Amino acid sequence: MKFLLTNDDGIDAPGLAALIESVRAALSPGDSILVAAPDRGRSECGHSVTTGRGLMTKRVDVDHYSVDGTPVDCVRAFAMSHGIDAVLSGVNAGANLGVDLLVSGTFAAAREAASHGIPAMAISHYRRPDMKKTWLHVPTWTREILGEFRQTARETVHPTPLWNVNLPAVDPDGPVPEIVQCEVDVRPHAREVTHADGAVTFGMNFQARPREPGRDVDQCFAGKITLSRLGFTVG
After folding, report:
1. Domain residues for 173?
2. In-domain check, residue 88
3. Nearest-CA neighbor of 13 among 47, 46, 38?
4. Mean pLDDT computed over 205-210
5. Domain of residue 78, CATH code
6. Which end of the chain has fewer CB atoms < 10 Å from its terminal CB, N or C?
7. 0.90 exceeded by the pTM?
8. Any idea what DSSP says for residue 45?
9. Using H for helix, E for strand and C for coil, what is the string for 81-103?
10. Distance CA 117, CA 189 (A)
11. CB 117 within 8 A of CB 160
12. Interval 102-126: pLDDT, tens
């Protein structure tokens, strides 16, 4: 199988490097990867695309390309024209849980691929100020899910697999967190809106966000790896 790897944190992001190592550790002999990611950070760009000009691509290594566009641009530029069997997006530096999926460029890349019938998965890593932000544990934490995703992607499945995974903010030197399958929480963030001198600002406590028991926000904040199998149906 041939996998396209992308993200929204940019071609040089450590999370993308962690995803590359994770895929190499988990997939089968003969599988190959192609990396195409934005040339700079594009966090929270959602499903935005570039129109009105051509996209510039730059080869930065063997089968590694930077694109002066969005994560969705990367998928459009490479997934359909390079014989890609599945798309993996991440690993995002920060959680993409619940309603965050509406603005996440990481998840948008996976959603774009699934809309074209290409199995896709987005992976993000919840972070907390009191936990060290390392990446070396990611291949171990994702091995089981990546293996299962590969098997699912090889099968003829309808709707097209569209998975969203979040790694918890727990001690990376401890046991591998439990993997739980759960639905996406649809509760909005509790935002404090301030109007002053013509400017509008928004305040939010991400760690204290509202959550529904058993759904992805609640489970990830409880220290578990969350897997939400969303699927994508066209027509």
Report:
1. 2-229
2. yes
3. 38
4. 89
5. 3.40.1210.10
6. C
7. yes
8. -
9. CCCCCEEEEEEEEECCCHHHHHC
10. 31
11. yes
12. 999 999 999 999 999 999 999 999 9
